[in-house]
Amino acid sequence: MLESSSRLTVTDLSMDLEHGSKTKLSAAPAAATPACKCSNRLLQLGDRLVAVQLVVLRTAAALTTVVAAAVMALNTQSYTAVVAIIGTKPLMQTFTAKFRYTPAFVYFVIANAIAGTYNLLVLIIRRLILQRRTASLVVHMLDMVILSCSLIISFSSLLLSLAQVIMALLATGAATAASMAELGKKGNLHARWNPICDKFGSFCSRGGIAIVSSFIGVALMLALNLLSAAANAHRPNVVGQ
Amino acid sequence: MAKLYRLITAVLRLAVAGAAAAAAIIMVTSHETTSFFGIEMEAKYSYTPSFIFFVVAFAVGFAYSLLVILVRPGSTASRLVLLSDVVVGMLLAGAVAATGAIADVGKNGNEHAGWLPICPQVRAYCVHVEGALIAGFVSLLVHFLIIMYSLHAVAEPLCCSH
C-alpha cells in the first residue's frame, strides 16, 4: 500500500516536468520527517529546473527551425545582364535563383517546416491544456496517430518517439541542403558545373544562414530528446516525452 | 531471453557492418574515364566532397557496428550504446542524404544553374554510385531496426531481461 502511493507521487512528479504547473508535492509526503522534506524540496527544485530547461530548449528549437524554413523559402535573387547586342540594341536577360529550382532546398524547407510546426504544437498543447494528464495524453496520441500512419512495422513503432523521427528528418534535410550549397559555392570542375555563388551572392549567403540555423535546430532537438528521455526514464511505456 | 537478444542484435549489427562496408567499397571503386567531343572527362568519387563524406561515414559505421557487438547488454555501456546508435544513425542518414542530392544533380542536371547531367556520359560511374547509395540505404534501414529493437528491449524488461 505504502509503496504504491510512493510510486504514484513519482509519476505525478514526472508528468509535471514539461508542464510547469504547481506540483502537489505538499500533499504527497504525508508521513515525511523534516529531513525528508528538505530533500523533497531539493528534488522539486531540480525537477522545476529540468522543466524550465525543456521548455527553453523546445522554444529555441522551434524558433531556429522556423527561421531556417522562412529564410530559405523567401530566398530569391535575380539580376539582369546583357546577353547579346543586336545591331545597336543590347539584349537583356534576367537570371533568377529561387529555392524551388533545387529539389534539395525544397526538401530542406519542408523538413524544417515540419519540425517547426511539431515543436510549436507540442509547446502550445503543453501550455494550453492545464490538466496535465490530458496534456501528455494528447501529445502521446498525436505521436501515435502520426506514427501509425507512417510506420509499417507495428510491434515496436510505438516505442520510437515522433521527436526522434522528426529530428532524423531534419538532419537529412540539413545535410542534403549543405551538400547542394557546397556544390553551388565551389562548383565541380570535373563535371563542368560552374559555381553560382559569385553571381548570386546574397542568395548564397541567405541560404548559408538558413542551413546553419537548421543545424543548430538539429543539435537542440537532439539535446531535447535526450533530456526528455532521461526525465521520463522511469516511465518505460511512454516514450514520446 | 538475454541470449536471444544478444544473438539478434549481433546478427543485425553484422548486417549493418556488411552493408556499410559494401557501400564504402562500391563508392571507392567507382571510377570512369570517357571522352566526348574530344574532351576527356574523368569521374571519380574523390572529386566530390559529398562522396568522400559518404565513404568516411560508412567506414565509421562499419567500424562502430563491429565494435559495439562486444558490449555486454545490461551494463552501463549499453545505455551509452543506445545514445551513440542514434548519433551514428543520424551520421549515416546525413551521408546518404548528401550523396543523394549530388547524385540527383548528376542524373537530372539543374537547368537553372546551367549544370548539365553527366550520367549519359559516364554511365558505369552512375550505376556504381547508385549501387553504393542502395547499399547505404540498406545499412541505414537495418541500423534503424536495431535502434527500435534496443528501445523495445529497454522499455519492456520482462521481454528480454535487459
Automatic annotation (TrEMBL), chain A:
<dbReference type="InterPro" id="IPR044173">
    <property type="entry name" value="CASPL"/>
</dbReference>
<keyword id="KW-1003">Cell membrane</keyword>
<feature type="transmembrane region" description="Helical">
    <location>
        <begin position="104"/>
        <end position="125"/>
    </location>
</feature>
<protein>
    <recommendedName>
        <fullName>CASP-like protein</fullName>
    </recommendedName>
</protein>
<keyword id="KW-0812">Transmembrane</keyword>
<feature type="domain" description="Casparian strip membrane protein">
    <location>
        <begin position="50"/>
        <end position="219"/>
    </location>
</feature>
<comment type="subunit">
    <text>Homodimer and heterodimers.</text>
</comment>
<keyword id="KW-0472">Membrane</keyword>
<feature type="transmembrane region" description="Helical">
    <location>
        <begin position="137"/>
        <end position="156"/>
    </location>
</feature>
<dbReference type="GO" id="GO:0005886">
    <property type="term" value="C:plasma membrane"/>
</dbReference>
<keyword id="KW-1133">Transmembrane helix</keyword>
<dbReference type="Pfam" id="PF04535">
    <property type="entry name" value="CASP_dom"/>
</dbReference>
<dbReference type="InterPro" id="IPR006459">
    <property type="entry name" value="CASP/CASPL"/>
</dbReference>
<feature type="transmembrane region" description="Helical">
    <location>
        <begin position="203"/>
        <end position="227"/>
    </location>
</feature>
<comment type="similarity">
    <text>Belongs to the Casparian strip membrane proteins (CASP) family.</text>
</comment>
<dbReference type="InterPro" id="IPR006702">
    <property type="entry name" value="CASP_dom"/>
</dbReference>
From TrEMBL, chain B:
<dbReference type="Pfam" id="PF04535">
    <property type="entry name" value="CASP_dom"/>
</dbReference>
<dbReference type="InterPro" id="IPR044173">
    <property type="entry name" value="CASPL"/>
</dbReference>
<comment type="similarity">
    <text>Belongs to the Casparian strip membrane proteins (CASP) family.</text>
</comment>
<comment type="subunit">
    <text>Homodimer and heterodimers.</text>
</comment>
<feature type="transmembrane region" description="Helical">
    <location>
        <begin position="82"/>
        <end position="102"/>
    </location>
</feature>
<feature type="transmembrane region" description="Helical">
    <location>
        <begin position="47"/>
        <end position="70"/>
    </location>
</feature>
<keyword id="KW-1133">Transmembrane helix</keyword>
<feature type="domain" description="Casparian strip membrane protein">
    <location>
        <begin position="6"/>
        <end position="141"/>
    </location>
</feature>
<dbReference type="GO" id="GO:0005886">
    <property type="term" value="C:plasma membrane"/>
</dbReference>
<dbReference type="InterPro" id="IPR006459">
    <property type="entry name" value="CASP/CASPL"/>
</dbReference>
<feature type="transmembrane region" description="Helical">
    <location>
        <begin position="122"/>
        <end position="146"/>
    </location>
</feature>
<dbReference type="InterPro" id="IPR006702">
    <property type="entry name" value="CASP_dom"/>
</dbReference>
<keyword id="KW-0812">Transmembrane</keyword>
<keyword id="KW-0472">Membrane</keyword>
<keyword id="KW-1003">Cell membrane</keyword>
<protein>
    <recommendedName>
        <fullName>CASP-like protein</fullName>
    </recommendedName>
</protein>
